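Good morning C.,

I know you're traveling, so I'll keep this short. The sequence:
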Amino acid sequence: MLETLTNPEPKTAVPHTSTHVTSDRPTELCQVLNAGVNLCLWQRPVQPGVSSELSHLRASHLPDVRCRTSPASFGQDVSTLLSQQGLDPVAFNLWRADLQDLADLFFSVSGGRDVTLRLETTDADGCRRFHVDRTHLRLLCTYRGPGTEWLTDRQVDRAAQAGGAPNERIIRFGEPSRFEPFWVGILKGDAFPGNAGLGLVHRSPQIAGSGQTRILFCLDC
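The tokens, ready to paste straight into the viewer:
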């Protein structure tokens, strides 16, 4: 089991740009609650046992299945979603344990808000355009395939993004950063109090036609 996060004392001043916290320790994820931080990223290693369990999943197995969840029901909710898709939860014991650990981390920073659980296997492109979530917080972990792409604030033309401009006008310079498999990120959206206009700008990677299958875990509040 992972250590439960202890919420830091939030800072008071909100800057015009946001910062990003990267760490090899899960306890740093709680810094997403600080004003001026819109991404905390836990750069953890691949877990071979979990990868082995997931190696046979195809894009059709979990076609963006989701449900409301809670600290008390999360484990059963995951098993139910798997069973509804004809998958035996017992075949994914290591994965389910890891999902539970990540959910516990997220529940510790979600402030008792309603949480939605999403599991997805896909070989198609998701959100191609760089966007900002209209959520409070979002946890993302890609277990297989390319991870979510994101931009630093210095890279983003937020006026272009808000105005519906294409990606080439949203990116001021450089290339987007990308989550690696098993990395865990908590993203702050525009609905977080005091964060309007400062949510993390990100998008799904383009994988259509590449022969790759992504396995994605998401929690929203």
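Safe travels,
E.
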